[in-house]
Amino acid sequence: LAGAREIVDDLVGDRAAEWDRTGLIPDDVLRTLSARGLLCAGVPEASGGLGASSAANGEFTAFVGSRCSSLRSVMTSQGMAAWTIQRLGSAQQHAEYLPKLAGGQLAAVAFSEPEAGSDLSAMTTTIEQDDDTVVVRGQKVWTTAAHYADMIVVVGRYGSGAAAVVVPASAPGVTVTRVAQPSGCRAAGHANVTLDEVRLPATAVLGGGQPLMLLVTTALAYGRISVAWGCVGILRACLDAARGHARTRTQFGKRLADHQLVARHLANLLTSEQIATRVCEHASRCWDQGSPEMVVATVLAKQVGAVQAAQGAATAVQVLGSAAAHEGHVVERAYRDAKLMELIEGSTEICELILADHAVSMPA
Ligand code: FAD
Fold first, then answer.
1. Which protein residue's CA is at the shortest distance from atom 22 of ligand 1?
2. Are residues 149 and 190 both part of a single domain?
3. Which band of pLDDT confidence, cut at 50, 70 and 90, is reported for residue 181?
4. Shared-domain flag, residues 310 and 237
5. How confident is the model at residue 217 (pLDDT cuts 50, 70, 90)?
6. CB distance 179 to 192 below 8 Å
7. 277 ligand 1 Cβ < 6 A
8. In this structure, are strands 151-158 and 107-110 parallel, antiparallel, or unpaired?
9. 110 Cα to the center of ligand 1, angstroms
């Protein structure tokens, strides 16, 4: 990933607040990053990608997250689409889709439905085989990056199990409607997706017939580790802003940093950033070593990262005081963006339930 940070700095510059306000990341920014393989840097070189390790991709994700959580969200979706295709697709499907995702096209992944949020077993979208075609029917909500996407990886019921299907956003029967005024990650292109009798070649189906929750867990694993590293980025941005302000602003005759209660906020922020970084590093090590601990380590990273980011962003706002009370200020955006990280890819409570199951089933 040599030079990747410079490319991001060049493309993002100081425009993240403007993108947050307008709710849009310019197309050329997304296309340039996609064409360089940077939105899904873990795609193997054999499939046209950069072949980055989870650790390297994670640190890069944190860097993007420190600049713009909306862009990082688009990156998470692209990486999750690529990962889902990698894990569930055949060699032919790898050759068909992965070079596109590392070569300029954009993708999103749709699980959630109006009545299937935390409980994805309530999903009703169907992918029905009809000779050498499939018909997709359903309604997906809150699909990150769907507004920008060329293809949407849609998860649905397939026979007695489940499948994912790669749906071109331009296919007849697909309607993509933007979510109005999301509270955070406002330029991430969240949209609701209606699939009205969408007919596709059967070759678009990935992992047909797997148990639904197994398929969902496979796909979500990438989303979770990516969000976790994104939270590290949020914390780094907050720590930078808070310490910069506390070093330069004087009240009661001394720097804010020299007031012990403010110093405690800085200590807490540093602690949050370090905790989140270490659990992410551990999870990425598990990914890179193919360790069986990977699933739990990933849920732990997502849980810790999101909670620490939400707390850390609130702390940073407190340190900056009125200086942060402007729409678009880096920590004001972080405050809104971080809270959403506690809701998605398995909310805080859902992650806690998974971790509790693990704790209960561990040998004494
Ligand atoms: P609900 O499931 O209704 O939950 C509401 C509250 O109840 C939460 O606090 C939850 O933790 C709690 N709760 C629910 N069940 C339990 C339980 N059993 N025990 C304890 N507490 C419980 N979806 C996609 O498919 N693709 C995307 O790209 C995507 N991106 C998103 C981006 C954003 C910014 C947001 C806000 C959502 C996105 N979603 C996406 C949807 C997201 O995955 C869901 O919002 C999430 O799964 C939670 O579902 P819900 O909002 O319906 O909340």
1. 349
2. yes
3. very high
4. yes
5. very high
6. yes
7. no
8. parallel
9. 13
**pLDDT at site 178:** 98
Tens-digit pLDDT profile for residues 271-315: 999 999 999 999 999 999 999 999 999 999 999 999 999 999 999
pLDDT the model gives residue 364: 84
Residue 239 has a pLDDT of 98
Mean pLDDT (the chain, rounded) = 97
Are residues 342 and 252 located together in one domain of the fold? yes
Residues 81 and 131 in one domain: no
Q: Verify whether ligand 1 is closer than 6 Å to residue 118 (CB atom).
A: yes
CA-nearest residue for atom 5, ligand 1, is: 118
Cα–ligand 1 centroid distance for 250 (angstroms): 42
pLDDT in tens, 308-318: 999 999 999 99
Domain count along the chain: 3
Q: Same structural domain for residues 351 and 268?
A: yes
Which CATH number covers residue 289? Answer: 1.20.140.10
Query: From the CA of 105, how far away is ligand 1's center (Å)?
Result: 27
Of 232, 110, 249, the closest CA to residue 174 belongs to: 110
Distance (angstroms) between ligand 1 centre and the Cα of 104 equals 30
Average pLDDT score over residue span 62-80: 98
Tell me the torsion sign for CA atoms 173, 170, 202, 209.
negative
Domain boundary among 152, 178, 210: 210
Domain harbouring 128, CATH code: 2.40.110.10
| Structure-token pair, residue 24 | 């849009």
* Residue partners of 202: CB distance under 8 A and separation at least 6: 129, 131, 132, 133, 134
Which tokens hold the place of 44? 């193997």
Assess whether the C-beta atom of 193 lies below 6 angstroms from ligand 1.
no
Structure token pair of residue 4: 């990747």
